[in-house]
Amino acid sequence: MKKGIIAGLALLGVVALAATGCSGAADASNKGGSGSNGKVITVGFAQTGSESGWRSANTESMKDAFSAKNGFKLIFNAADNKPENQIAAVRSFINQGVDAIVIAPVVTTGWDDVLKEAKDADIPVILEDRTIDGSSDLYKAWIGDDFKKEGETAGAWAKTNLGDKATNMVVLEGTTGSAPAIDRSTGFSSAISGTQIKTLDSQTGNFTRADGKTVMEGFLQKYGKDINLLFAQNDDMGLGALDAIKAAGLTPGKDIQIVTIDGTHDGLQALADGQFNYVVECNPLLGPTVAKTVKDVLAGKAVEKKQTATDQAFDQEQAKQALPTRKY
Ligand code: GZL
Q: Where is the Periplasmic binding protein domain positioned along the sequence (predicted)?
Protein backbone atom coordinates (compact mmCIF):
# COMPACT_ATOMS: atom_id res chain seq x y z
CA MET A 1 0.00 0.00 0.00
CA LYS A 2 1.11 3.59 -0.47
CA LYS A 3 2.11 6.78 1.41
CA GLY A 4 -0.72 7.06 3.90
CA ILE A 5 -0.46 3.42 4.84
CA ILE A 6 3.35 3.42 4.59
CA ALA A 7 3.47 6.40 6.96
CA GLY A 8 1.25 4.52 9.36
CA LEU A 9 3.41 1.43 9.06
CA ALA A 10 6.55 3.55 9.45
CA LEU A 11 5.08 5.21 12.55
CA LEU A 12 4.05 1.83 13.87
CA GLY A 13 7.51 0.60 12.95
CA VAL A 14 9.23 3.48 14.82
CA VAL A 15 6.98 2.98 17.88
CA ALA A 16 7.57 -0.76 17.74
CA LEU A 17 11.32 -0.17 17.28
CA ALA A 18 11.43 2.41 20.04
CA ALA A 19 9.44 0.07 22.28
CA THR A 20 11.92 -2.70 21.73
CA GLY A 21 14.95 -0.36 21.64
CA CYS A 22 15.81 -1.74 18.21
CA SER A 23 17.25 0.63 15.62
CA GLY A 24 16.75 0.58 11.93
CA ALA A 25 14.33 2.27 9.62
CA ALA A 26 10.84 1.02 9.09
CA ASP A 27 10.78 -1.32 6.10
CA ALA A 28 11.01 1.42 3.46
CA SER A 29 12.15 -1.21 0.97
CA ASN A 30 8.51 -2.23 0.85
CA LYS A 31 7.60 1.24 -0.42
CA GLY A 32 5.71 0.54 -3.58
CA GLY A 33 5.30 -3.13 -2.78
CA SER A 34 7.94 -4.51 -5.12
CA GLY A 35 6.67 -8.05 -4.87
CA SER A 36 10.27 -9.22 -5.13
CA ASN A 37 10.44 -9.36 -1.33
CA GLY A 38 7.28 -11.48 -1.17
CA LYS A 39 5.04 -8.57 -0.19
CA VAL A 40 1.57 -8.69 -1.76
CA ILE A 41 1.18 -6.01 -4.43
CA THR A 42 -2.15 -4.19 -4.32
CA VAL A 43 -3.28 -3.09 -7.81
CA GLY A 44 -6.35 -1.05 -8.76
CA PHE A 45 -7.58 -1.98 -12.26
CA ALA A 46 -10.01 0.39 -13.99
CA GLN A 47 -11.59 -1.65 -16.81
CA THR A 48 -13.89 -0.05 -19.42
CA GLY A 49 -16.87 -2.29 -18.71
CA SER A 50 -18.22 -5.51 -20.24
CA GLU A 51 -19.32 -4.30 -23.66
CA SER A 52 -18.03 -7.13 -25.83
CA GLY A 53 -16.63 -10.62 -26.10
CA TRP A 54 -13.19 -9.08 -26.49
CA ARG A 55 -13.60 -7.23 -23.21
CA SER A 56 -14.63 -10.40 -21.39
CA ALA A 57 -11.50 -12.16 -22.65
CA ASN A 58 -9.33 -9.20 -21.67
CA THR A 59 -10.85 -9.05 -18.16
CA GLU A 60 -10.33 -12.79 -17.69
CA SER A 61 -6.70 -12.49 -18.79
CA MET A 62 -6.09 -9.60 -16.39
CA LYS A 63 -7.79 -11.29 -13.41
CA ASP A 64 -5.80 -14.49 -14.03
CA ALA A 65 -2.53 -12.55 -14.19
CA PHE A 66 -3.25 -10.35 -11.16
CA SER A 67 -4.18 -13.29 -8.93
CA ALA A 68 -3.18 -13.97 -5.32
CA LYS A 69 -1.03 -16.90 -6.45
CA ASN A 70 0.98 -14.42 -8.52
CA GLY A 71 1.49 -12.13 -5.52
CA PHE A 72 -1.28 -9.60 -6.17
CA LYS A 73 -4.36 -8.25 -4.49
CA LEU A 74 -6.57 -6.93 -7.32
CA ILE A 75 -9.16 -4.22 -6.79
CA PHE A 76 -11.28 -4.43 -9.95
CA ASN A 77 -13.66 -1.79 -11.28
CA ALA A 78 -15.73 -1.95 -14.48
CA ALA A 79 -16.91 1.52 -15.50
CA ASP A 80 -19.91 0.57 -17.68
CA ASN A 81 -18.12 2.42 -20.50
CA LYS A 82 -18.61 5.74 -18.70
CA PRO A 83 -15.41 7.85 -18.57
CA GLU A 84 -16.62 9.66 -15.44
CA ASN A 85 -17.01 6.33 -13.62
CA GLN A 86 -13.52 5.33 -14.63
CA ILE A 87 -11.93 8.56 -13.35
CA ALA A 88 -13.82 8.17 -10.06
CA ALA A 89 -12.48 4.61 -9.77
CA VAL A 90 -8.90 5.82 -10.27
CA ARG A 91 -9.39 8.50 -7.58
CA SER A 92 -10.67 5.79 -5.26
CA PHE A 93 -7.58 3.67 -5.92
CA ILE A 94 -5.38 6.66 -5.07
CA ASN A 95 -7.30 7.23 -1.82
CA GLN A 96 -6.91 3.55 -0.94
CA GLY A 97 -3.16 3.88 -1.33
CA VAL A 98 -2.74 1.06 -3.85
CA ASP A 99 0.77 0.16 -5.00
CA ALA A 100 -0.04 0.56 -8.72
CA ILE A 101 -2.94 1.47 -11.00
CA VAL A 102 -3.79 -0.15 -14.34
CA ILE A 103 -6.28 1.54 -16.69
CA ALA A 104 -7.96 0.50 -19.95
CA PRO A 105 -9.14 4.05 -20.80
CA VAL A 106 -12.65 4.21 -22.30
CA VAL A 107 -11.71 7.38 -24.19
CA THR A 108 -8.44 9.17 -24.91
CA THR A 109 -9.28 12.52 -23.29
CA GLY A 110 -9.83 13.86 -19.77
CA TRP A 111 -6.98 12.01 -18.03
CA ASP A 112 -4.44 14.73 -17.16
CA ASP A 113 -5.82 15.78 -13.75
CA VAL A 114 -6.37 12.36 -12.19
CA LEU A 115 -3.09 11.00 -13.55
CA LYS A 116 -1.26 14.00 -12.03
CA GLU A 117 -2.94 13.12 -8.72
CA ALA A 118 -1.65 9.54 -9.04
CA LYS A 119 1.85 10.86 -9.82
CA ASP A 120 1.71 13.21 -6.82
CA ALA A 121 0.73 10.21 -4.69
CA ASP A 122 3.75 8.32 -6.05
CA ILE A 123 1.49 5.61 -7.51
CA PRO A 124 2.67 4.35 -10.91
CA VAL A 125 0.05 4.06 -13.67
CA ILE A 126 0.22 1.48 -16.46
CA LEU A 127 -2.18 1.65 -19.43
CA GLU A 128 -3.45 -1.56 -21.01
CA ASP A 129 -5.44 -1.96 -24.23
CA ARG A 130 -6.38 1.62 -25.12
CA THR A 131 -4.21 4.76 -25.07
CA ILE A 132 -4.76 8.38 -24.00
CA ASP A 133 -3.98 11.81 -25.45
CA GLY A 134 -2.35 12.95 -22.20
CA SER A 135 1.36 13.46 -21.69
CA SER A 136 3.27 10.19 -21.75
CA ASP A 137 5.11 11.15 -18.55
CA LEU A 138 1.80 10.55 -16.71
CA TYR A 139 2.07 6.78 -17.14
CA LYS A 140 4.93 4.29 -16.99
CA ALA A 141 3.97 2.06 -19.91
CA TRP A 142 1.22 1.08 -22.36
CA ILE A 143 0.55 -2.52 -23.37
CA GLY A 144 -1.92 -3.16 -26.19
CA ASP A 145 -2.52 -3.73 -29.89
CA ASP A 146 -1.77 -1.61 -32.95
CA PHE A 147 -5.25 -0.34 -33.82
CA LYS A 148 -4.12 1.69 -36.83
CA LYS A 149 -2.46 -1.40 -38.32
CA GLU A 150 -5.64 -3.42 -37.67
CA GLY A 151 -7.61 -0.81 -39.64
CA GLU A 152 -5.04 -0.90 -42.45
CA THR A 153 -5.21 -4.70 -42.62
CA ALA A 154 -9.02 -4.66 -42.80
CA GLY A 155 -8.89 -1.90 -45.42
CA ALA A 156 -6.30 -3.77 -47.48
CA TRP A 157 -8.65 -6.77 -47.65
CA ALA A 158 -11.50 -4.48 -48.79
CA LYS A 159 -9.25 -2.85 -51.41
CA THR A 160 -8.10 -6.22 -52.78
CA ASN A 161 -11.55 -7.77 -52.91
CA LEU A 162 -13.85 -4.85 -53.69
CA GLY A 163 -11.74 -1.81 -54.48
CA ASP A 164 -11.82 -2.14 -58.26
CA LYS A 165 -15.62 -1.92 -58.58
CA ALA A 166 -18.22 0.57 -57.36
CA THR A 167 -18.79 -0.45 -53.73
CA ASN A 168 -21.06 1.23 -51.19
CA MET A 169 -19.88 0.78 -47.60
CA VAL A 170 -21.41 1.47 -44.20
CA VAL A 171 -19.28 1.59 -41.05
CA LEU A 172 -20.12 0.60 -37.47
CA GLU A 173 -17.64 2.65 -35.45
CA GLY A 174 -16.45 1.76 -31.97
CA THR A 175 -16.99 3.94 -28.91
CA THR A 176 -16.73 7.60 -29.91
CA GLY A 177 -13.45 9.10 -28.73
CA SER A 178 -11.83 5.75 -27.99
CA ALA A 179 -8.36 5.01 -29.34
CA PRO A 180 -9.46 1.89 -31.29
CA ALA A 181 -12.32 3.74 -33.00
CA ILE A 182 -10.07 6.68 -33.94
CA ASP A 183 -7.10 4.63 -35.09
CA ARG A 184 -9.02 1.85 -36.88
CA SER A 185 -10.89 4.52 -38.87
CA THR A 186 -7.61 6.21 -39.79
CA GLY A 187 -5.96 2.96 -40.84
CA PHE A 188 -8.93 1.68 -42.86
CA SER A 189 -9.43 5.01 -44.66
CA SER A 190 -5.79 5.20 -45.67
CA ALA A 191 -5.87 1.64 -47.03
CA ILE A 192 -8.92 2.21 -49.26
CA SER A 193 -7.78 5.62 -50.50
CA GLY A 194 -8.06 5.82 -54.30
CA THR A 195 -10.38 2.81 -54.59
CA GLN A 196 -14.03 2.74 -55.73
CA ILE A 197 -15.20 2.07 -52.16
CA LYS A 198 -17.56 4.86 -51.11
CA THR A 199 -18.71 5.39 -47.53
CA LEU A 200 -22.51 5.82 -47.49
CA ASP A 201 -22.69 6.22 -43.70
CA SER A 202 -20.64 5.78 -40.55
CA GLN A 203 -22.02 5.71 -37.01
CA THR A 204 -21.00 4.42 -33.59
CA GLY A 205 -22.38 1.13 -32.36
CA ASN A 206 -20.47 1.49 -29.07
CA PHE A 207 -18.69 -1.85 -29.61
CA THR A 208 -21.89 -3.69 -28.56
CA ARG A 209 -24.07 -6.27 -30.36
CA ALA A 210 -27.28 -4.47 -29.42
CA ASP A 211 -26.20 -1.11 -30.81
CA GLY A 212 -24.60 -2.75 -33.84
CA LYS A 213 -27.96 -4.31 -34.67
CA THR A 214 -29.91 -1.07 -34.11
CA VAL A 215 -27.57 1.07 -36.20
CA MET A 216 -27.48 -1.52 -39.00
CA GLU A 217 -31.30 -1.57 -39.04
CA GLY A 218 -31.16 2.18 -39.62
CA PHE A 219 -28.61 1.82 -42.41
CA LEU A 220 -30.77 -0.83 -44.11
CA GLN A 221 -33.91 1.31 -43.85
CA LYS A 222 -32.00 4.18 -45.45
CA TYR A 223 -29.89 2.39 -48.08
CA GLY A 224 -31.34 -1.13 -48.36
CA LYS A 225 -29.85 -3.24 -51.14
CA ASP A 226 -27.45 -0.42 -52.11
CA ILE A 227 -25.14 -1.53 -49.28
CA ASN A 228 -22.40 -3.85 -50.55
CA LEU A 229 -19.92 -3.79 -47.64
CA LEU A 230 -20.03 -3.43 -43.85
CA PHE A 231 -16.88 -2.52 -41.91
CA ALA A 232 -17.62 -3.23 -38.25
CA GLN A 233 -14.83 -2.03 -35.94
CA ASN A 234 -15.38 -5.04 -33.67
CA ASP A 235 -16.88 -8.52 -34.02
CA ASP A 236 -19.74 -7.83 -31.63
CA MET A 237 -21.21 -4.98 -33.68
CA GLY A 238 -20.84 -7.16 -36.77
CA LEU A 239 -22.64 -10.03 -35.02
CA GLY A 240 -25.46 -7.69 -34.04
CA ALA A 241 -25.67 -6.46 -37.63
CA LEU A 242 -26.15 -10.06 -38.87
CA ASP A 243 -29.61 -10.14 -37.27
CA ALA A 244 -30.60 -6.90 -39.00
CA ILE A 245 -29.27 -8.03 -42.38
CA LYS A 246 -31.16 -11.34 -42.24
CA ALA A 247 -34.34 -9.59 -41.04
CA ALA A 248 -34.09 -7.41 -44.16
CA GLY A 249 -34.12 -10.57 -46.29
CA LEU A 250 -30.45 -10.23 -47.28
CA THR A 251 -27.65 -12.80 -46.98
CA PRO A 252 -24.66 -11.66 -44.91
CA GLY A 253 -21.32 -12.56 -46.45
CA LYS A 254 -22.87 -12.47 -49.93
CA ASP A 255 -25.38 -9.60 -50.47
CA ILE A 256 -23.41 -7.57 -47.93
CA GLN A 257 -19.78 -8.51 -47.37
CA ILE A 258 -18.55 -7.99 -43.81
CA VAL A 259 -15.08 -7.26 -42.44
CA THR A 260 -14.58 -6.97 -38.67
CA ILE A 261 -11.82 -6.61 -36.08
CA ASP A 262 -11.18 -8.58 -32.84
CA GLY A 263 -10.98 -12.28 -33.71
CA THR A 264 -13.19 -13.53 -30.87
CA HIS A 265 -14.51 -17.07 -31.00
CA ASP A 266 -17.98 -15.93 -32.08
CA GLY A 267 -16.48 -13.68 -34.73
CA LEU A 268 -14.36 -16.48 -36.18
CA GLN A 269 -17.35 -18.82 -36.05
CA ALA A 270 -19.41 -16.34 -38.11
CA LEU A 271 -16.46 -16.15 -40.50
CA ALA A 272 -16.15 -19.95 -40.77
CA ASP A 273 -19.91 -20.11 -41.38
CA GLY A 274 -19.59 -17.67 -44.30
CA GLN A 275 -21.52 -14.81 -42.63
CA PHE A 276 -18.38 -12.68 -42.25
CA ASN A 277 -15.76 -12.40 -45.01
CA TYR A 278 -12.61 -11.31 -43.15
CA VAL A 279 -11.64 -10.83 -39.49
CA VAL A 280 -8.57 -9.02 -38.18
CA GLU A 281 -7.37 -10.11 -34.75
CA CYS A 282 -6.85 -7.80 -31.79
CA ASN A 283 -5.22 -9.92 -29.10
CA PRO A 284 -6.94 -9.40 -25.69
CA LEU A 285 -4.66 -11.73 -23.71
CA LEU A 286 -2.58 -8.88 -22.29
CA GLY A 287 -2.68 -9.84 -18.58
CA PRO A 288 0.70 -11.58 -18.22
CA THR A 289 2.64 -8.75 -19.89
CA VAL A 290 0.80 -6.11 -17.87
CA ALA A 291 1.44 -7.97 -14.60
CA LYS A 292 5.15 -8.37 -15.36
CA THR A 293 5.38 -4.69 -16.23
CA VAL A 294 3.74 -3.72 -12.93
CA LYS A 295 6.24 -5.85 -10.98
CA ASP A 296 9.18 -4.46 -12.94
CA VAL A 297 8.04 -0.87 -12.39
CA LEU A 298 7.63 -1.42 -8.65
CA ALA A 299 11.04 -3.09 -8.50
CA GLY A 300 12.54 0.03 -10.06
CA LYS A 301 13.45 -1.73 -13.29
CA ALA A 302 13.39 0.06 -16.65
CA VAL A 303 10.37 -0.93 -18.76
CA GLU A 304 9.44 -0.43 -22.41
CA LYS A 305 7.11 2.54 -22.80
CA LYS A 306 5.10 0.77 -25.50
CA GLN A 307 4.64 -3.01 -25.72
CA THR A 308 2.50 -4.03 -28.72
CA ALA A 309 0.82 -7.43 -29.05
CA THR A 310 1.08 -9.44 -32.26
CA ASP A 311 -2.12 -9.71 -34.33
CA GLN A 312 -3.01 -11.92 -37.28
CA ALA A 313 -5.94 -11.92 -39.74
CA PHE A 314 -8.27 -14.63 -41.00
CA ASP A 315 -10.28 -15.48 -44.12
CA GLN A 316 -13.05 -18.07 -44.03
CA GLU A 317 -10.77 -21.08 -44.58
CA GLN A 318 -8.19 -19.86 -42.05
CA ALA A 319 -10.96 -19.39 -39.47
CA LYS A 320 -12.01 -23.05 -39.84
CA GLN A 321 -8.40 -24.10 -39.21
CA ALA A 322 -7.91 -21.76 -36.24
CA LEU A 323 -11.17 -22.29 -34.32
CA PRO A 324 -10.36 -25.60 -32.58
CA THR A 325 -7.30 -24.14 -30.80
CA ARG A 326 -8.38 -20.56 -30.15
CA LYS A 327 -7.83 -19.40 -26.54
CA TYR A 328 -10.63 -16.82 -26.62
C1 GZL B 1 -9.51 -3.08 -28.61
C2 GZL B 1 -10.57 -2.89 -27.54
C3 GZL B 1 -11.92 -2.81 -28.16
C4 GZL B 1 -12.33 -4.07 -28.90
C5 GZL B 1 -13.79 -4.12 -28.58
O6 GZL B 1 -8.26 -3.22 -28.02
O7 GZL B 1 -10.33 -1.70 -26.80
O8 GZL B 1 -12.86 -2.61 -27.11
O9 GZL B 1 -12.08 -4.04 -30.28
C10 GZL B 1 -13.77 -3.72 -27.12
O11 GZL B 1 -14.40 -5.37 -28.78
O12 GZL B 1 -15.03 -3.38 -26.67
A: 44-301
